[in-house]
Specification:
The structure holds two protein chains of two kinds.
Chain A (H helix, E strand, L loop, with lengths): L1 H42 L19 H8 L3 H35 L7 H9 L6 H11 L5 H9 L16 H8 L14 E2 L2 E2 H4 L5 H27 L3 H9 L4 H28 L4 H6 L11 H11 L3 H31 L1
Antiparallel strand pairs in A: 1-2
Chain B lengths: L1 H50 L3 H6 L12 H8 L2 H32 L5 H12 L3 H14 L6 H5 L6 H12 L3 H9 L4 H9 L4 H17 L2 H6 L9 H12 L5 H36 L1
Helix pairs in contact in B: 1-14, 3-14, 4-8, 4-11, 4-13, 8-11, 9-10, 11-14, 13-14
The chains are: A mainly alpha, B mainly alpha.
Chain lengths: 346, 294
C-alpha cells in the first residue's frame, strides 16, 4: 500500500517536472508561432495595411486570394512571375548542387586522398558566412569589370563578352532561341496567348542572366553543407562492401552505381528536400543584390511576400501570398516524401 | 609451370595498367579539388584586399588582391555609419539567443526524451509541425504579433521570439535518448528529484551536444537578416551587422563604395570564421548529425 502511493507520487512528480521543463517552449511557440499563424490566416482575409491598428482592418473575404490567383491584374501577373522565377531557380540550383556535392563527397571520401581536412573546411566555409556578406561580395564580383567576367575572359582567351550580370533581364531560353533565329516577332502566334497572367513566351523565358548570377552564387554557398551531409553518409558504408566488390572485379563506376548510390538514397532525397525548401525561400540575396529587378526577373515568391507587406503596405495580401507559399512548399515536400518512401522500399 | 608464369605476367601487366589509371585519377581528383578550393578562397581574399583599397584603385584593378595603396578609408567611413553599435547589437542578440536556446532546448529535449509526462506525444508532434513551416512564411505572422505586443523596434523583439528553436530541441532530445538510463536510475535511488537528476547528473554528460547547439544557435543568430529586418523598422540604434550592411548598401543607390561594403562584409565574417576554426570538429559533426537524423 505504502509502496503504491510512493510510485503514484513519483509519477505525479515526474508529470509536473515534464510540463515544467516544457513550459518555456510551449509559451514561446504558442505566442510567436501558433497564435501568429491564426492571426495571419485571419488577416489574409482583410485589407490591413500593416500600419493602422489591426482592429481597423476590413474583412474582405477571399479577395486577396482571388486577386493573386485569377484576378487578371498586376497582382496575378506578379505572383506568377515570382512563381516562375522561383521554379527556374529551384530547377537550376537543386540538381546542380546535389550532383556537385555528391561528386565532391565521393572524391573527398577516397582513402588515398590527402589534405581531406583542408578541402572539407574550405568548401564548408561559405556555409557559415552571413548571406548578406556573401551577397555584397558577389555583387562586386558580378560588375561588368568584376572578377566573374575577368575569369570567364581568361578561360575563353578573351572571347568572353563582359556582361553587366545584375542588370541583364534576358532569359536563357530566349537567348538560345534568338541565336537560332526565333524572336517574339517571328514566333508562332500561340506564344502570345496569356496563361495565368503571363504569355506563353514569358513562361518559357528561362532564368534571366541576373537570376542565373544569383543561382550560381547560391550553388557556390550551399555545396559545402550538402557535401558534409553526403560525407557523413558515405562514412557509414563499411569498407568491406567495396573490398568484396573489388574482388568480384567491379569497376569504380559500377561500385558507385550499384553500391554507393543505393545506400545513399535516403541521404540523396534528404539533400534534395533541403534544397527545394531552401530555394523556394530565397530572400536575403534578392533583397541585397537586385530588389526583384531587372524587369522583375529576380522577383521570387518570398521577396514578393516581403514587398507586398512592407514596401506596398498591403499586409493582408502579403499574408495571403505567404499562405500560398506554404501550400506550395508543403506540396513539394509531400511529393518528395512520397517519392522517397516508395523509392526507399525498393 | 607455364600457366603460373603467364598468370604472374598478367597480374603485373594489370597492376601496371591500374598504376597508370591511378595516376590519371590522382591528377584529375587533386586538380578538381584544388581548382575548386581556389574558387572558394579567392573571393574571400579579394574581399579582404578590396576593403583596404582606395575607391579609384578598386575601379582600376577590381580583381587584384594586394592593394597598391593601403588605406583604412573604407573602415573609417563604415565606423562613421555607427558600425560599432551594429556589432555590439549583433553580439548581444546572438549571445542571449544562444544562452536561451541552450537552456530551454536542453530542458525541453530532456523532458521529451526521458520524462514520461501526459501529453508529451502531442507536444512533440506540435514542435515537429512547426519545423515544417518555412521561416519566410512566418515573417508576416511574426510582424503581426510583435506589433500587437508592442515589441517592434525593441531588443526583446529581436531576441525573445528566437530564444527557443525546434532544431535545438531535436538535437538535445536525440542526445538525451543516447544517455544510459542507469545513470538516472542511480540518481533516483539516491533520492534525487527530477530537477536534481537533470541538472547534476544528465546535463554534465551533454557537453558535445551542447557545444554543437551553441555553435549553431550563435551562427544562426549572428547571420540572421530576415528577423531583424521585420523587427527593426525605424530605430537605427537597434541595427545588427547584417541588417545595417544591407540597408547601407540600399542607401548608397548606384554609387556603391565598395571598400566600405567589403569592410562591413569582413567585420560580419571574421568573428564567425574565428569561432569556426576553433570549433571546426563540432560544426562538421553537428551538421552530419542533423543531416542523418533529418
Amino acid at each position: 500500500m505504502a509502496a503504491a502511493t510512493g510510485i503514484k507520487g513519483e509519477d505525479r512528480q515526474r508529470a509536473i517536472a515534464g510540463w515544467l521543463f516544457m513550459s518555456p517552449t510551449l509559451l514561446i511557440f504558442g505566442v510567436f508561432i501558433i497564435i501568429p499563424i491564426l492571426f495571419a490566416l485571419y488577416f489574409s482575409l482583410t485589407d490591413w495595411n500593416g500600419i493602422s491598428p489591426p482592429g481597423q482592418a476590413n474583412f474582405i473575404g477571399l479577395k486577396n486570394f482571388q486577386d493573386t490567383l485569377i484576378g487578371g491584374g498586376i497582382r496575378q501577373s506578379d505572383f506568377f512571375k515570382a512563381l516562375k522565377n522561383t521554379t527556374y531557380f529551384a530547377l537550376g540550383v537543386v540538381p546542380t548542387q546535389t550532383a556537385l556535392s555528391l561528386l565532391l563527397a565521393v572524391i573527398v571520401n577516397q582513402a588515398w586522398l590527402r589534405f581531406k581536412g583542408f578541402f572539407r573546411t574550405t568548401y564548408y566555409f561559405p556555409s557559415i558566412t552571413s548571406s548578406i556578406a556573401i551577397s555584397l561580395m558577389f555583387l562586386f564580383f558580378y560588375q561588368k569589370s568584376g572578377l566573374i567576367n575577368q575569369v570567364l575572359g581568361s578561360l575563353t582567351f578573351g572571347h568572353w563578352q563582359s556582361i553587366a550580370w545584375m542588370a541583364d533581364p534576358r532569359g536563357l531560353v530566349h537567348i538560345i532561341l534568338e541565336a537560332l533565329g526565333v524572336t517574339i516577332q517571328n514566333a508562332p502566334d500561340f506564344v502570345k496567348t496569356e496563361v495565368l497572367g503571363l504569355t506563353i513566351w514569358d513562361w518559357i523565358s528561362g532564368p534571366s542572366i541576373a537570376l542565373m548570377a544569383i543561382m550560381i552564387m547560391n550553388t557556390w554557398t550551399t555545396i559545402g553543407t550538402m557535401m558534409v551531409i553526403f560525407l557523413a553518409a558515405l562514412q557509414n558504408v563499411p569498407g568491406y562492401v567495396y573490398e568484396a566488390a573489388q574482388i568480384d572485379g567491379a569497376s569504380a563506376w559500377t561500385q558507385f552505381r550499384r553500391i554507393t548510390l543505393p545506400l545513399l538514397r535516403p541521404t540523396l532525397f534528404f539533400v534534395i528536400t533541403l534544397g527545394l525548401i531552401g530555394t523556394y525561400q530565397v530572400f536575403d540575396q534578392i533583397y541585397v543584390m537586385s530588389g526583384g529587378g531587372p524587369a522583375k526577373t529576380t522577383l521570387t515568391v518570398a521577396y514578393l511576400v516581403y514587398r507586398s507587406g512592407f514596401t506596398n503596405s498591403d499586409m493582408g495580401m502579403a499574408a495571403a501570398i505567404a499562405i500560398l507559399l506554404f501550400i506550395i512548399i508543403f506540396t513539394l515536400t509531400m511529393i518528395q516524401r512520397r517519392i522517397t518512401g516508395s523509392e526507399a522500399d525498393v | 609451370m607455364t600457366t603460373v608464369a603467364t598468370n604472374t605476367g598478367t597480374a603485373v601487366a594489370e597492376r601496371e595498367g591500374r598504376g597508370a589509371w591511378h595516376t590519371v585519377k590522382l591528377i584529375l581528383s587533386y586538380g578538381l579539388l584544388f581548382l575548386l578550393a581556389a574558387a572558394f578562397i579567392y573571393p574571400f581574399l579579394l574581399a579582404i584586399g578590396t576593403s583596404f583599397k582606395t575607391l579609384p584603385e578598386i575601379n582600376q584593378t577590381p580583381v587584384a588582391i594586394i592593394p597598391r595603396e593601403f588605406t583604412l578609408e573604407g573602415y573609417q567611413r563604415l565606423f562613421g555609419f555607427n558600425v560599432g553599435r551594429w556589432t555590439i547589437n549583433s553580439a548581444i542578440v546572438a549571445v542571449l539567443i544562444t544562452l536561451g536556446n541552450v537552456f530551454f532546448a536542453s530542458l525541453a529535449g530532456y523532458a521529451l526524451a526521458r520524462v514520461p509526462f501526459p501529453g508529451s506525444r502531442v507536444a512533440f508532434l506540435a514542435i515537429l509541425g512547426t519545423m515544417m513551416i518555412p521561416g519566410i512564411v512566418l515573417i508576416i505572422p511574426m510582424f503581426i504579433i510583435l506589433k500587437t505586443l508592442g515589441m517592434i523596434n525593441s531588443y526583446s523583439g529581436l531576441i525573445v521570439p528566437k530564444i527557443i528553436t525546434a532544431f535545438g530541441i531535436f538535437l538535445m532530445k536525440q542526445f538525451f535518448e543516447s544517455v544510459p538510463r542507469e545513470l538516472e536510475e542511480a540518481a533516483r535511488i539516491d533520492g534525487a528529484t527530477p530537477f536534481q537528476t537533470f541538472f547534476r547528473v544528465v546535463l554534465p554528460t551533454a557537453r558535445p551536444a551542447l557545444v554543437a547547439l551553441i555553435i549553431f544557435s550563435f551562427q544562426g543568430a549572428w547571420n540572421d537578416f530576415m528577423h531583424p529586418l521585420i523587427v527593426v523598422t525605424t530605430n537605427k540604434a537597434l541595427y545588427t551587422l547584417p541588417l545595417g550592411l544591407a540597408l547601407l548598401r540600399g542607401g548608397m543607390g548606384q554609387n556603391l563604395q565598395w571598400n566600405s561594403l567589403m569592410a562591413g562584409s569582413m567585420l560580419t565574417t571574421v568573428p564567425m570564421a574565428i569561432i569556426f576554426f576553433i570549433f571546426q570538429r563540432y560544426f562538421i559533426e553537428g551538421i552530419s548529425y542533423s543531416g542523418i537524423k533529418g
